[in-house]
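Okay, is this right?
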Amino acid sequence: MAIKSGLTNSAVASATYTIGTSAGCPTQSDIPNFGPNVHIYDPTMSSATIQAQLDAQFAQMKDTATAQFSENRVAQLFKPGTYAVDDNVGFYTSVAGLGQNPDDVTINGHVTVDAFNASDAGNATQNFWRSAENLAINPVGGNRWAVAQAAPFRRIDVHGDLQLYPASYGWASGGYVADTKVSGQAASISQQQWYTRDSDLGSWAGGVWNMVFSGTTGAPANTFPNPPETTLATTPVSRDVPYLYIDGAGKYRVFLPSLRTNASGASWANGSTPGTSQPMSQFYVVKAGDTAATINNALSQGCNLFVTPGVYHLNQTLNITRADTVVLGIGYPTFVPDNGVNAIQVADVDGVRLKGLLIDAGTTNSAALLTVGPAGSSATHGGNPTTIQDLFFRIGGQIAGKATTSLIVNSNNTIIDHIWAWRADHGNAGTVGWTTNTADTGVIVNGSSVLATGLFVEHYQKHEVVWNGQNGKTIFFQNEMPYDVPNQGAWMSAAGVNGYAAYKVGAGVTTHEAWGLGSYCYFNVNPAVNSYHAFEVPNTPGVKFHDALTVSLGGVGTITHVINDTGAATASNTTPSNVVAYP
């Protein structure tokens, strides 16, 4: 706009123009219809009625052979009160309390994951995609949560012991606890790795290869590798997950916890979690029948998203452009990008919160499944970072998916808090193979001052993680290299360099630090395959690694060094090669 020379201001009031923003989210219901896959329980219901429903849902979601790659999705939500039930938690099931604080919902019983099926042979290493959150448990004999990846246990008050291993004492591998109190003993026993963040434990028992703690009272001392415990007194930066609750008027709201620095202990240990909340009137509820177009329309109008259990195919990228947008999923809602589109793109803005989604690559290759910030993002977000929490990526297994990269982080100060990026090593027939479910890299970090707390990345065909940003930090990394490398010639990162490092810090990086890292090989297609090292970093004083290890599972294949040229070759008897500090 321009003003002609010589004119003076009008006597009328000046006008204000707003360009490029929406008028705000059209008001949604504060008591929304969450659709048929969300089951809400009230303490006035009989225990027998609730138990029958829980059992029926578990029967559908239990079996590893049939439910693991099904499209069933379910959320079980308990209104404030006390319940006498035992909730066995199957695949794609979220269990959560609807109180503002964990002790507003009490389960006099158990919330259990075990090696439930005879076909599991007592092994819990495929207990993926299930969660428990925001409730208290009074468990007789302790509460068992024997899980593998993508199975968070958050905001739980366990009045007793917590058993993180199957009743059979069989293997389990990988797991995550955050913002939790355990009055008794938390015991990992046969868990190969585990990460516990910002929690309070009565005590801890167990450690196989890599037990990691940050900001956890009652954690064992830092003694890696004997026993293999890595303990940080605090978590540098954290922000607990957004969650659904019911207020005193019976209306639904989403609570947004505040950012914490140098955090220790559960956020609610001394009362309510600090933070703010938003009414459900500002959330568009995504449920059956929604498309990429309807979801993008809600985002463009200024709505947050509450994504209910289901599988949603996307024929266009979901674009998140507004600062402080919240995308909250329950019951493992799954986005499948079709026709090679990227699933989600986040602008370089403050405070976006993504939580509780599974992104399953489509059969036409996507360049990326989730990108945070465009290339070259330069804004600083230290006071209000984007958080990526309980976000899971899958290439193959369900369908023959393909994606070059699962997660690209270009925005500075982003917090990656518990992800599992998985190129499937098993699944439905025709969905897994070296040339079938193709994927180069799980995570690329280009932004500066990015923090990862709980980074699980497995089976990608090149570097699993590439970290190019300055001042990055990782607390806990779990990795398996690809099982299905056909031959050494197909897997060379450079001339004369066997394999690809699982975690590569870019050559130009001068500051980076990581704690509690493990990388394993199991080259079952061709046991002659070798990787020269698991971690590749520039040799500079500002790049520091603590408590890193490699393992050859059953001696099937080898890794020559742990980090760069340091660390012994993997042994044939599944014992780790350890490096306590590098350089």
Residues 1-22 have pLDDT under 50 and may be disordered. Residues 3 and 12 are 16 Å apart (CA to CA). The first helix runs from residue 47 to 61.
